[in-house]
Amino acid sequence: MSGSLPREPSSSAGPSGRRRTWAELLAGRVKKQKYNPEKGQKLKDSAVHLLRCHQNLNDLLLEVEDPQYKSLCLSKLIDCDSAGEHTDCSISFIGSALQDQALRLGVPVGILSARMFAGCVEQVCAEPSNPVLLNAEQRKKLSSLLDIAQYLLTHNMFSRLSFCQELWKAQNSLLLEAVWRLHAQNVVNLQELLESHPDTQAMATWLFGNLCLLCEQTDASCPSTDVAEAMLSGLVQLLVLRGFQENLALKRTVTPEKMPQVAIDVLQRMSVFALDTLAAGRLDTSDHKAVRGWFGVYSGRSCCGMIGVDSLKRFFSHTLTQILTHNPVLKVSDAIQMQKEWSFAKTHPLLTTLYCRLFVMLSPEESISHLKEVLEMQEVNWQRVLSCVSTLVTCFPEAQQLVKDWVACLMTRAFESYHLDNMVTAFLVVRQAALEGPSIFPSYADWFKASFGSSHGYHGCSKKALVFLLKFLSDLVPWEDPRYMQVHILHPPLVPDKYRSLLMDYVSLAKTRLADLKVSLENMGLYKTSSSSEDIAEPHNQAIQDVERAIVVFEHKGRIPEPVMEASIFRRPYYLSHFLPALLTPRVLPVVPDSRMAFIETLKRANKIPSSLYSVYSQACATAKEKQCDNAIPGTRTEPTCAEGPLGPLTAALEELRALMTDPTQYDVISAQVAVISERLGAALGRSKDDSSLERLKIRLNILAPRLEGQDQVVVDLLLKAFCQNLMAASSFVPPERQSPWAALFVRTLCGHMLFPAVLARLCQLLRHQGPNLSTPHILGLAALAVHLGESRSMLPEVDLSPPAPTGSCPVPKFLNSLLSCCTRESLLFSMKFCTAAISYSLCKFSSQPHDTLHSYLSPGLVKKFQFIVFRLFPEARAPCSPEDTAGLAWRPLYLPSADWQSAAFSLWRQSSFQELLKETEFHLTYRDWLQLELEIQPEADILSDTERQDFHQWAIHEHYLPAPSASGGCDGDLEVACTVLVSELMDFFQSSRNYNHPENSELVLGGRTGNEDVLSRLQEMAVDLELEQGCALPHTQPTSQGHFIFRVFRRRLQALSSETGVASSLRRQHELLMCKRLLLRLPSSYLVGIPQLGQTLNCEEFFHLVNSELRNFCCHGSILTHDITVHFFRGLLNACFHSQDPSSTVNLTLTECQSKCPVILTSALYWWSSLEPVLCSRWKKCFQNTLPRELQRLQESQQFASNFLSSDSASPAPSPAWVSAAALYFAVREVRKENIKRQLKKLDCEREELLVSLLFFSLMGLISSYLTPPVDTAESLKAVDICAEVLMCLKRKKVSWLVLFQLTETDARLGYLLRLAPDQHTRLLPFAFYSLLSYFTEDAIIREEAFLRTAVDMYLKLIQLFVDGETRLQGQSRPQGNPVQLITEAQVFLLQLIPQCPKQSFSNMTELLAGREDCDPEVSAALLRRQQANPNFDLYQEPHLF
Q: Model pTM?
């Protein structure tokens, strides 16, 4: 370098006068300082930096007059036309040339190469075809340069700092892509490049302008979109990383604060530019394209990756603050007036999309917290704040409760500090959220009533709080929408009477304002609240909407809606002048009354329709019908059509949504388009989505015959068709997991309208009644709809089915599952298609989520039904899947026209992700689940043949579920468990309302449906196997704590019904017992008696308990069990004798046990003896070749005694036991004609006392049965009375006490067994029988019987109690003597006449008898007590001394 610089005189000369060299000067300084290596290195670095910063390379090179430099040009050494073809030799040659030239010029090679390279980059960027992007040719040239630069960097022949300085000199011609590629190829870091710019403000301006241009290039219509998007994403990542990262360790520049300031400045400029563009409304311009591209950087794919979550959150929070505080020129009064225009549907789609992306990163909790902070600390743009609230509550359901809590906090703080800012914010926020409808947020009216409509409201703490509220509301009057004033007037705050004048001042002010606006208070409909952003409708139109909504609510609730009742009382002008005329619009009334007619009739019965108005309506309807008949043309029919007007905009909006399905670049605007559909849907129905009645009601639906109004069906079909078409269109481009959330938003729109019950009714029609006829697109669309309804289950009401479901109301996913039937071939194939489509869609759509969350979207019943169908249809599926039997997801081929559903179903079954799903406990198809589905199969319409079905049953029971562990739904190898579950499910099936297909089968008898016969056969086979398995010894022959499984099932089910009371529960219990009995008849008779223990005795305890506790009360008439169960018991008894060492002893011991433990079996055997005896005798003689056992002979003898008693003048003595002979005699007497009864029963005088008392008991039971058993036969009732009377007379003649029959208890050792011979209802009705015989009580006998008065009084009080409890209602229709009231009157008169005639000793302990029952009949009670306390000369009719 010394040789190239001009020499100047030196001021430093040596002693000899010559100049000292540079080395001598340095050497002199070294001598003066102590050598320090660290200082030397520092000095060297400073010197190099000084030279680099202040050396003018241009001046330096101009001083050189070497012509070789002028001829040295890097562009000539690099053949750009052959870019990309440079070899290592050519690149190294360039490096060598640069080194030689630098050596010749005396310039560092790094500085020389940087200057040369900067010039070449400038040449590459010359004459650009795009403001920020290179063309293909330029990219090739730049790529060659980058290769050379990387070589030079590797060999330390390139100065980055010099290159950056030289590059910025050509800033105006520099293209952003060239800068980006320098960064991407690690030639020079972008941060280093930006830091090296001498003017920070100019550099920020240049970068902002280029970013705007780059955002324009991200539009789909521009070429090189992918390059532009990659550049934009990378630049934003760098700016966010440097501008919003707390850790400064990566910032290695000399001025570390420069880059963060530039990054924040550029990002802030971009946000302001975007917000200004949106505010100006410049659509279809380059600025609008730039805004769309800029907002795209907030998506997850652009921001996630290299940037930490904390940095992203700080950036997003900063952006949210900018949005909320941008251009805060609107006042609160402006917000109050204009906020209805800032709803989610009316906000620019780009802005709502940006909000959603911000909220996804920040979470709703953080977003609301940040919103609070900004509102408290800064001036805000109210339009942005309120549109932010709308987006938050609309797109994030979890934010709804957060907003409610925020509003509550604001209100509490407002009334604590009387701070208007909190009050204003709360009212604005709650009104804005309410604009989005009740499915998202409660209506403003509901919130206002909840906040101020009770004494616990915010204003209820003091007068100051009340004044504060009313002052605030008064201040709002000049600006707020009329709807809010209507709410305040119709639902005013609750105030004490002494402050009523304050409220009336506000009401007067609000009414005056409404009058100025020419808005009537009555214009507010019954359901229309301030939640709606629509204009106020005319009263007539508003009334029509109210009528339609009231009818819908009435249809689902079954009674007059509360708003209608309130209007009929408190808003009579609107009710009479607008609502009723709209409701009573004349029309031709349908033959079958519809919901409108039912509603009108209900109002009329409630006196809510004036008679004159109703008469005019009826006459007008009749006139309309006459005109229709006059104008009718034979053979033609007018179909109702839907007006094109209201459906036109809705159809157009649905078509626009379908167009967006095929354009992935438009996914961001789908949510806004769905909001538009929601608005137009409300307009098409004439209803607003703000009605909150749906979310408070359960949906009532008749599953057998779902009905829809004509208009509703047209709209629902339009929506369902659009959903199916959208799904097919979207699936033809991308699979479900890559689609936008359009489906979930669409379903939420359906759920948020009062139309949703109609949607469910239409789904019921399609899936249950028309399923096999649906096409593939319909099946796919409805299956996906079912999945998304499951996703939204938390916001859906439950469904009440008719006929009622076994578990009551059910959630929507379970309801949809119940619509899929497998009972026939056609329905099973349709269910297979639907389940395949739904499961495949779920596995694709939510593939990124864990399987344990899939039950939130996918009904477990659907998965179980699919397993059941696959097991039935594919025998190969019954074997475990091998590891290689896995296939791809089955969704994509399903929407093709040639879809093979069975192949798709089996492919889904073998799919590994589905098999993983089945490992979840909730999706196990258990043995009980399998039985429930198999019971519904109808063999005559089954897809399997009889043989195939039997093989399937054998595999399912014995190979699959019997050996399976209980944890997976099996039986642990226990055959008794398998039988128990099968019996329980059989009874459940017949007791439940799952038999929707056979509503006419009112009896639901076991086996009445052929679909159950095969399953019942499996039970019989298993029962036999169980006996053989246990060595021909049933479980209850070896007593266990639980008993025999069949009786254990009965006991558990009957105990579950024991807590219920009333007629309905009694009928259910009777039905349950009917099923129990019929199952017993289908099982081996040995189940009733068991197998002899110790060779002789049988264990019948459980059967005896069933008879005594249940069958005796519900399954017998009088004292008789039915023929079938009686014969089954004796058949089991004879069968048990085959296993006994002494058959006769076994029979004798068992029947002897019956006498003491279950006597009704013996009386039943006597009643059916004519058909039972031949079978018993024949089988006994054939098997045992000897005479009948002694106890059977006793039954024969009793029957013979009864026959002889009636056939001869003299009767033989009655055999023992006497009650058995009495039963046989009673059954025989019942067959005697009425006129012969007295003659035949005169012979009773010769019989024993015990037989006569027992005979009277049976006669009394027969009398009660004649009154209870329909149809009522008066002749039979009179004959029963005669029998009782004759037996009673005989007892009186023999002076035998018969009153004991009316005072029987279980502990009575002598006659207590009689109570086990009759139903409990019969014994409770003994008072009725007692007073039915009133005319046969003779006065002398009565007075002589000391216990008669006590018994008569007890029976009278019990008779009154029976009447009060309603147990005499049947007797009132059948008793020949009159109704129960007449009988009670006769009994009262009888007692009042009897009491004075009875001796003093008859009144002993009368006080105890009347204890607690004096109020049943005060007159009789007073007479008894006075007679008890009076002297013998007591006169009943003398004047009482009361005082």
A: 0.60
